[in-house]
Amino acid sequence: MARALGKNSEADRWLEDAAAIQTAILNKLYAPDDAAFYDLDAQNHFVRVRSDVISRVLGEYVVDQKLFDAIYEREIHNPKAFGVPYPLPSIALDDPAFVHPIPRNSWGGASQALSFSYRLQITPTRTAAIKYVSGRAELCLNDKPLYQTSSVVRLVTDLDGKLESATGIAPETIAVLVRQASGQERKFSIRPNESKYLSASTSESG
């Protein structure tokens, strides 16, 4: 912004500060053995609670692609950590700090309303987003809407946004309707915990 306003000296200072903060985050807050970023306590020891702060670091251009991929596979995409049917938990499921059972208004593991609009940079040129509006979820790639659904279902795409599979996360068998940006609709039924591969022609009457 400073550069666009012609304030080049300020722009240089902001870039230098950003680089210093990036280096500090990587050097002081990242634990390679855990593939996680942690806070520090007063004695500069890691507070070893794997929280959704990890996803925020990934979304802020702090890590390079190689480190992003490693953390994504180990944490965000891992069904035992953050890759749950209803993302994104505030604490990894397999972290000892995850609270069982979860009380009301808890940051001890439950998915948070602050996560209901979720963005993640998946490559240097691609940003994925999930937006929850008026009872429906909208999946976007680079801010371009791809799919909409108001069904209780988990949808999985590839890095190009192509729909690959669905998993049932409702307590009973449900009819799913997925509407593509083109207006085309895909309908199928899915059972609780069932994973279903979605071919280009997947559509059922029931």
SSE ordering: HEEEEHHEEEEEEEEE
Helix content range of the residues, please?
10-25%
Strands side by side in the biggest sheet: 5-6-7-8-11-12
Mean pLDDT: 86
Radius of gyration: 20 Å
Task: Please report the total strand number as a whole number.
Answer: 13
User: How can the largest sheet be summarized?
Assistant: 6 strands, antiparallel
- Approximate strand percentage: 25-35%
The number of helical elements comes to 3
Low-confidence stretches: none
First and last CA, distance:
53 Å
Domain count: the total is 2
- Envelope shape: globular
Alpha-beta classification: alpha+beta
What would a concise description of this structure say?
The chain has 206 residues and is an alpha+beta fold.
